[in-house]
Design goal:
Structural class: alpha/beta
Number of strands: 7
Strand order of the largest sheet: 1-5-4-6-7
Radius of gyration: 15 Å
Helix content: 25-40%
Order of helices and strands: EEEHEHEHEHEHH
Amino acid sequence: LRALLPAHCTRAGVEVDLQAVTSQSGAACLILEAGRFWTLSAHIAVVANLECFLHFEKMGVSADVALYAAGRLSELALNWIGSPELSQCRFTHCGDYDPVGLDEFVKLRSAVGSRAQLHLPDNLRSLIATYGRPDLLRD
């Protein structure tokens, strides 16, 4: 996780200041355990690519916290996202616009419903023309 704005996680009486940890080390790490999730109330951007995650503030996406998905979120991460502990969170999916990336958005939307939105940059057409891989769509 990278917290760009104040964000505090709690679990079993322990509080973690995600913004302070991010400021100190560049990112914060929370170990997820089934049935023992961290509580957080924030606007979370789910970021698929490492480069975008590391430079998230340059993307111009309004979010408190960036969550690195490493391409596809694990089932444990999706369970956390859909858990009561994150029921106060909103989500913006910042993934690829290929079939895999859009499938990830569908899974996120299935987990949290209308609290998930797809990030659509104003220059999406030119980004796809420059960086897109037409072979992924053909395949």
